[in-house]
Every structure is written in C-alpha cells, then in structure tokens.
Amino acid sequence: MFIEQGFKSENKFWKYILGSLLIIVASFLGQSPLLIALLYDTFVNKKAYPSNNDDIMRFFEPNMTLFLILISFVFAMLGILFVVRYLHHQTMLSITTSRVKIDWKRVLFSFSIWAIFTILSTLAFYFSNPTDFVINFKPIPFAILVLLGTVLIPIQTSTEEYIFRGYLMQGFANLAKNKWFPLIMTSVIFGAMHISNPEVAKMGNIILVYYIGTGLLLGIITLMDEGMELALGFHAANNLVSALLVTSDWSAFQTHSIFKDISQPSAGLDVIFPVVVIYPILLFIFSKKYNWTDWKKKLTGKIE
C-alpha cells in the first residue's frame, strides 16, 4: 500500500517538519541564479531593480525568466532526494508508487488525456471568443520555449508532486494514522501555495477553489491508484501544454506561447466548472481503466 510505505518506527512527524525546512532551504538556494542575474543587470547594466514580483517577471526576456524561475525546482528536487534518502532512509520509489517500479504507461496515459483536453478546450475558447486572443507565435523563441519547457517544467511539476502527494502525504499519514487527513491537508496547503500567483490578485480568492480542487483530484488519484504516476502525468501536461499554448500579462508564467489572452481576467463558472464537472469525469475514466474499488477505505480509512 502506497501511503503505508512511509510507516517506520523512526519516521516521527518532526522529521517531516525538518525535512520540509531542508527542502525549502534547497529551493531558496536554487533562487540564487535569479538573484545574481538581477544584481548583475542592476549594477552592470544600470537597470532599475524590480520593486515587486510583477516587475521581476518582466525584467528579463521571457525564456530567460522561465529558466531562472524553474531552475530553483532542480535544487528543490535534489533536496527531496537528500531528505528521503538520508533523513528518512527511504527510496524515492517508496514515495512514488507501491508498484515494484514506476509505471510509465500510467504517466503517459494521464499526460495524454489531459494534454488532449487542454488543447481542445483552448482551441474551443479561441474560436468562440477570437477577440480575446492574439497570435503570439514567434518560431525561434517558441522553439526555445519548447526545449526549456520540455526539460524543466516536468521537473517543476514532479517536484511539487513529490512534495505534496509523496512526501507530505506519507508524513501526515504518520501523524494522523488515517487517509482523509493527509488528503485534506496536502490539498489545502497545495492550494495555499498558489496564493501569491498573479491570477489570485487579478481574479480574487475564489480561484483558490480551483487550486485546492486540483490538489484534491491529485490526492484522490494517488490514493486510489496506490501511486503518484497519474498525478505526475496530469500535472506535467497541465503546466507544459498551458505554457506552450497561452500566456497573458497576468499569468504566473510569461512565455512565448502560441496565443496571448488579452481579455480582462474574471473568475466565475470557468473556475468552478473543472472542479465540479471535468474532474469527476476524469476520475470516472481512471476508475474504469484501472478498476478502482473500495473508495471509502482508500480515501478515509484508518491506517493500522
């Protein structure tokens, strides 16, 4: 059983607190290239130092900004590897899946189904509201974006999954000795981690319903499938395909995407609809393909 793989007599909850702090430190170290680049342009090229996060996002050319932001996740992933191996004396496989090895077919299936949905829904929005978009495509910057995104965005999304659906899921299970508490806690924390995103400032806190709902989806499929493979594929498709297809002045990633959304941001049905309609359909598809049963026990049961 996936969540029980973190149950060892020496795995006290304080170790997960310490481990989380070490991962955060590693992530901060990973932000040093961005800081060095900012200071270089400030002192050498005499550019004004950015005063807020929005200014930082526009300080460099978009591909350079994307690279400097995502490199911190490489450091965070190294932090996870260190903490899991040397603090908890576990393997990365043990916080990835209950299977004898990672099932890459599951990762690919989840990636494919969500990538197809994202592409089709984006095209539907474009053709139904063409005045809300402009063509942003530039061949060479887009090719660089594809290369950067294909390498670094899966590292970013995998890092988040290993933290929330792997490491912290097992950590909160050690604390609570049940499955519903880690599911709720990791979903709420996952949503709260996005509160500084520019989308929240533009649309309001209601968009946190989407972020927390997405955390719940990823937690549910991890618990039901006894592993993170489906969550890894979904999250990678969600971020990578979105970064390649659409950007806007108020999105978290400013990219050389194919389209640029120039509409005024607002949160309404488009925030609630995926959580209450699309995600249940996705759960149904996964459940039929992988023969999930005993939902109550897997999502809320006690851990002996």
Structure characterization notes:
This is CPBP family intramembrane glutamic endopeptidase. Pfam families: Rce1-like. This protein is an all-alpha fold. Helices cover 68% and strands 3% of the residues. The chain has twelve helices and three strands, in the order αααααβαααααββαα. A three-stranded mixed sheet has the order 1-3-2.
Keywords:
3 strands; 3-stranded mixed beta sheet; mainly alpha
Give a summary of the structure in a few sentences.
68% of the residues lie in helices and 3% in strands. It is mainly α and 304 residues long. α6 packs antiparallel against α10, α9 packs antiparallel against α10 and α9 runs parallel beside α11.
Low-confidence stretches: none
Q: Tell me the strand order in the biggest sheet.
A: 1-3-2
CA gyration radius, whole angstroms: 20 Å
| Proportion of residues in extended strands | under 5%
Organism: Flavobacterium xylosi
EC number: 3.4.-.-
InterPro entries: Rce1/LyrA-like_dom (IPR003675)
Keywords: Hydrolase, Membrane, Transmembrane, Transmembrane helix
How do the helices and strands line up, and which of them pair or pack?
Blueprint: H1 13-30, H2 32-43, H3 53-57, H4 62-87, H5 104-128, E1 133-135, H6 139-176, H7 180-192, H8 198-203, H9 208-225, H10 229-245, E2 246-248, E3 259-261, H11 269-290, H12 295-300
Parallel strand pairs: 2-3
Antiparallel strand pairs: 1-3
Helix pairs in contact: 1-4, 4-6, 5-10, 6-7, 6-10, 7-9, 9-10, 9-11
Protein name: CPBP family intramembrane glutamic endopeptidase
Organism: Flavobacterium xylosi
EC number: 3.4.-.-
